[in-house]
Design a protein that fits this description.
With 226 residues, this protein is mainly α. The protein has helices spanning 3-21, 68-80, 104-108, 117-124, 133-143, 159-173, 177-186, and strands at residues 28-34, 37-44, 46-48, 53-54. The strands form 2 sheets. It has a two-stranded antiparallel sheet with strand order 1-2. A two-stranded antiparallel ribbon has the order 3-4. Helix 2 packs parallel to helix 6, helix 2 (68-80) crosses helix 7 (177-186) and helix 5 crosses helix 6. The radius of gyration is 20 Å and the shape is globular. The relative contact order is 0.14. The mean pLDDT is 93.
Length: 226
């Protein structure tokens, strides 16, 4: 452990936070770590602006697509247990999946060609009903939307890939996705304040999302897709 390097990195992190992050009403958490050591950590803003409840180091924050890293980790842990083979066809795990030639690895690397559920649901789903992972799969089965490109031929970032990975984790692990993530990722890493959102019970008690004017950004029909 190099104390001088630590001190230099900490100073840089402090000024970066001060000059680049902590402005324009930033609300959230900022952390810099190096070689397993936390160099600098700060929180600011509110988890609930209306109640003037401020963020602290234990506040669970809505991290949106950053959670794909955790989902990927869960898939790879199941690979280590020989329960998932990255190069197996998705239909090996989701037998009702309607497309041929798409592997688990293609889902992980956004190379499946599957359309984004945020687009195809506009004409095929009642937007007043909360969409879930299993509904995404059901819509793919029912409509078999054309792929955007042949599987494996190019990269295109798409949340649908990870909704399907969550379903694979559930099938293979024999537990719900939230329980599987707790077992495979959060508990081993001592992430005691992390969890998968259950939109039916805790959307009012968790950290809320705001724009730069502190206007509440409400949950919408796709926020229950993991």
């Amino acid at each position: 452990f190099d104390e001088r390097l630590y001190s230099t990195t900490r100073r840089f992190a402090y000024f970066f936070y001060k000059d680049e992050i902590a402005k324009d009403r930033f609300s959230g958490s900022f952390l810099v770590a190096k070689n397993g050591h936390i160099v600098y950590e700060r929180t600011s803003g509110y988890s609930n602006f209306e109640k003037k409840k401020r963020n602290d180091f234990d506040t669970p924050l809505h991290v949106a697509s950053i959670s794909k890293v955790a989902t990927s980790l869960a898939v790879l842990r199941l690979c280590d247990r020989k329960l998932i083979d990255l190069d197996k066809d998705v239909r090996e795990y989701l037998r009702e999946f309607p497309y041929e030639g798409i592997t688990v690895r293609m889902l992980l690397t956004h190379r499946s060609g599957i359309q984004y559920y945020g687009y195809f649901t506009f004409k095929t789903w009642n937007l007043g009903i909360t969409l879930k992972n299993k509904d995404v799969l059901s819509l793919l089965i029912k409509h078999k939307f054309p792929l955007n490109f042949p599987p494996g031929s190019k990269f295109s970032y798409c949340n649908t890939n990870y909704a399907l990975l969550a379903l694979i984790i559930e099938r293979v692990n024999g537990k719900s996705f939230p329980k599987s993530m707790e077992e495979l990722v959060f508990y081993p890493l001592k992430m005691k304040n992390s969890f998968i959102l259950d939109h039916t019970i805790n959307t009012d008690t968790i950290s809320q999302s705001y724009n730069s004017k502190w206007e509440l950004q409400a949950f919408n029909y796709i926020d229950a897709v993991h």
